[in-house]
Design a protein that fits this description.
CATH superfamily of the largest domain: Tyrosine recombinase, N-terminal domain
Strand content: 5-15%
Helix content: 25-40%
Radius of gyration: 25 Å
Strand order of the largest sheet: 1-2-3
Low-confidence stretches: 1-6
Distance between the termini: 61 Å
Length: 288
């Protein structure tokens, strides 16, 4: 049986004026019409911006085409964000932020082959950002090139971002502020309102990230053995895993900290084992 020839197609980006939503329409290899939502007119006020955002669908629609026009960095970046982003919400949010705010505005219109390491290196040096932030931008751009090579949108080669250097990316530009016992006492004197006071005490005594602090449930505490199991994080209202495997651990509870927690539990409206420790009264306790 003779195989049907697959041709490259640009598809059509159009605005539904009744809903003010942009759509991208194309045909699959069997000739069936397909349509995908690009976004609202608020997100993409012009057709040109909507067309750039629809590049991810155009690339997918032509996945089987033998020849594909040169792909821009923005098209590859949007394909990566659509298909390959990290599963952890905060990590994905960071990648998206670095690509949308920095990499795409600067390099989006360039074809992948035209994004030269030396130019990226000099651009990185000119950014008024911390070295760690520059390192995160470089990492996000590197992932775009890796995925573009995997999808055969870019010739297999050494990743161009390997040549870009960001020095002292792991170091702090400012030393962390370490509170003395006297400063700690003064801080607690200023915190008189609950739940804030108890939250600060628990965070300081256990050394938790704010997402881990928000993710505490009463069932996480083993009062008999005096430990708490850190096993989830809450970020932007979404429940997620802790940042690293080492973060999921049992931490000892000092008797004085147990007293603080028991005092707060007595005041809280949500004190069942399945309730959040810092349950939100505005969400009827369903969210911290």
């Amino acid at each position: 049986m003779k195989r049907k020839r697959v041709r490259f197609q640009n598809g059509t980006t159009y605005l539904d004026k009744r809903r003010n939503i942009w759509y991208y329409r194309w045909s699959d290899s069997e000739g069936h019409r397909k349509c995908a939502t690009v976004g609202t007119i608020v997100e993409f006020p012009t057709k040109a911006k909507a067309q750039r955002a629809a590049e991810v669908y155009r690339l997918s629609a032509n996945a089987e085409a033998p020849q594909c026009p040169a792909v821009t960095f923005e098209a590859a970046a949007r394909k990566y964000m659509f298909e390959r982003m990290p599963t952890r919400r905060t990590t994905a949010k960071g990648y998206r932020n670095n690509l949308e705010r920095h990499a795409i505005p600067q390099w989006g219109a360039f074809e992948l082959a035209a994004v030269k390491p030396l130019a990226v290196d000099r651009w990185m040096q000119s950014l008024p950002l911390a070295q760690k932030s520059k390192s995160h931008i470089k990492c996000a751009m590197r992932q775009v090139f890796e995925y573009a090579m995997l999808c055969e949108l870019f010739d297999m080669q050494r990743n161009p971002m390997d040549f870009v250097r960001v020095v002292s990316a792991s170091g702090r530009e400012k030393d962390p502020l370490v509170l003395t016992p006297k400063q700690w006492s003064k801080l607690l004197e200023c915190l008189v309102a609950e739940r804030a006071r108890s939250m600060v005490i628990v965070a300081m005594c256990l050394g938790l990230r704010r997402s881990e602090l928000a993710g505490l449930m009463w069932s996480d505490f083993d009062w008999r053995n005096g430990v708490v199991l850190i096993q989830r994080a809450v970020i932007d209202g979404y429940i997620d895993n802790v940042k690293t495997k080492k973060s999921k651990v049992k931490l000892p509870l000092h008797p004085a900290l147990v007293a603080v927690l028991e005092s707060w539990r007595g005041m809280s409206e949500y004190k069942a084992e399945t309730d959040w420790v810092w349950a939100s009264p505005w969400k009827a306790g369903e969210r911290p």
